[in-house]
């Protein structure tokens, strides 16, 4: 396909791009807050404290991936708001139950858990905050999907800004007071801010809690049972695959190397992941509409792919030339290693940014089993890092980058195959798409 500047610029008038812009503009502001605070926080808290906090957040992300059994994703789908409201209620009930179990497990097996993940003994009491932060996170996600359903993209962004603003402020205040618990307390207050802001947005979009009933809760549980059946395990594997390197580094090396790797990971992954997530949410709705109408989606996908590649290339070139110096200037000399790591792992993260954004195509075109197969193989590949304990830290990062790059190139080829199958189908028998 010929890609020209007019073709790219024409996307400005596209509803997809307008909606993505509303999400990503708010996300950019939200992400700017912690990034701007990092130079101060990295001087107030030690690499060991940030390493422990990275493991803390990693455990939370794993639990969140199954915290609602994926029912929160279904909130967007029903035609009637009453069913969507009951999906919201069901997500909350499931999340509360799961996190109650998590709290009991931590209460009974705190030392065992700490030993398994090599959690520093001086921070082990942080584990008790995991169920609370996870529950707040799950509620925030459910609110976000309700707002996406209502196309309230800017209010969704405001919630994220509220979260990051209060989170960073609390962490900074505790850091000045030399209290290492500040990183955790900041996360708690950040999610609380997100929920409080979200409650106001729910009311503004006609969310009514009285619509939630036992009968309808049972109905939506059965009606959307495919989400926990077919999406929960892939979602869990996806998060575990993303976070597993942190646990392995913490186990093979130390919390210091974990802190170095986590800073690099945050600077590369967090902005990418949020932009990718926003684009995927809007792209999912777009693909579904066009699929039902029997319309082609390949040109739009190729344009988006080109833009994502362009952004990744520019970012990688910038980091290759000035990455190390930038980390030293922003975070201090003690974080120079993180700046050196970025030159190694940025290629793998670049492929992840491009392909992870497009992976929603597999869901939109109902190829969830294919995506699940890829996710399983990717998880096995990442798990192989456990067997490279004799490598140096930098050699480990190189091996990790090779796995990332090869895996996501393979997924991109899978997406292209699925996309071509769809395009061939609508050309031959377009009437089938509406059944």
Task: Please render the helix and strand layout as text.
Blueprint: H1 5-9, H2 15-44, H3 47-66, H4 81-116, H5 130-149, H6 153-176, H7 182-204, H8 214-223, H9 226-230, H10 232-252, H11 255-293, H12 298-331, H13 336-358, H14 360-364, H15 368-383, H16 393-428
Q: What does this protein structure show overall?
A:
This protein is mostly helical and 435 residues long. It folds into two domains: 35-230, no CATH class; 233-435, no CATH class. The protein has helices spanning 5-9, 15-44, 47-66, 81-116, 130-149, 153-176, 182-204, 214-223, 226-230, 232-252, 255-293, 298-331, 336-358, 360-364, 368-383, 393-428. The relative contact order is 0.11.
Q: Can you summarize this structure?
A:
The chain is an all-alpha fold and 435 residues long. The protein has helices at 5-9, 15-44, 47-66, 81-116, 130-149, 153-176, 182-204, 214-223, 226-230, 232-252, 255-293, 298-331, 336-358, 360-364, 368-383, 393-428. It has two domains: 35-230, no CATH class; 233-435, no CATH class.
């Amino acid at each position: 396909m010929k890609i020209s500047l007019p073709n790219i610029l024409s996307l400005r008038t596209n509803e997809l791009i307008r909606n993505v812009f509303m999400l990503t503009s708010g996300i950019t502001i939200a992400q700017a807050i912690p990034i701007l605070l990092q130079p101060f926080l990295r001087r107030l808290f030690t690499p060991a404290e940030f390493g422990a906090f990275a493991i803390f957040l990693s455990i939370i992300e794993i639990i969140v991936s199954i915290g609602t059994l994926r029912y929160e994703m279904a909130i967007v789908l029903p035609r009637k708001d009453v069913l969507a409201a009951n999906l919201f209620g069901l997500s909350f009930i499931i999340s509360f139950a799961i996190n109650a179990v998590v709290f009991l497990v931590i209460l009974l097996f705190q030392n065992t858990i700490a030993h398994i993940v090599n959690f520093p003994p001086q921070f082990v009491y942080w584990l008790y905050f995991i169920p609370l932060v996870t529950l707040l996170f799950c509620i925030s996600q459910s609110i976000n999907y309700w707002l996406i359903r209502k196309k309230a993209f800017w209010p969704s962004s405001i919630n994220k800004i509220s979260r990051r603003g209060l989170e960073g402020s609390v962490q900074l205040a505790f850091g000045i007071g030399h209290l290492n618990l500040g990183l955790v307390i900041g996360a708690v207050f950040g999610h609380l801010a997100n929920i409080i802001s979200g409650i106001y947005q729910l009311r503004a979009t006609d969310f009514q809690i009285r619509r939630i009933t036992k009968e309808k809760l049972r109905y939506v549980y059965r009606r959307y049972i495919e989400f926990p059946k077919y999406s929960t395990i892939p979602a869990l594997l996806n998060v575990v695959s993303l976070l597993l390197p942190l646990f392995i580094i913490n186990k093979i090396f130390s919390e210091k190397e974990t802190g170095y790797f986590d800073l690099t990971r945050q600077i590369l992954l967090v902005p990418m992941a949020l932009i990718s997530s926003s684009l995927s949410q809007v792209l999912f709705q777009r693909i579904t509409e066009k699929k039902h109408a029997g319309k082609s989606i390949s040109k739009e996908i190729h344009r988006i792919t080109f833009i994502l590649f362009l952004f990744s290339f520019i970012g990688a070139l910038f980091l290759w030339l000035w990455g190390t110096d930038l980390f030293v200037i922003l975070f201090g000399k003690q974080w120079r290693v993180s700046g050196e790591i970025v030159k190694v792992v940025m290629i793998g993260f670049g492929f992840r940014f491009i392909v992870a954004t497009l992976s929603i195509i597999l869901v939109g075109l109902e190829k969830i089993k294919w995506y699940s197969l890829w996710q399983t193989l990717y998880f096995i590949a990442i798990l192989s890092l456990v067997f490279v304990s004799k490598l140096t830290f930098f050699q480990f990062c190189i091996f990790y980058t090779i796995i990332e790059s090869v895996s996501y190139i393979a997924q991109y080829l899978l997406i292209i195959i699925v996309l071509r199958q769809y395009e061939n189908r609508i050309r031959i028998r377009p009437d089938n798409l509406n059944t």
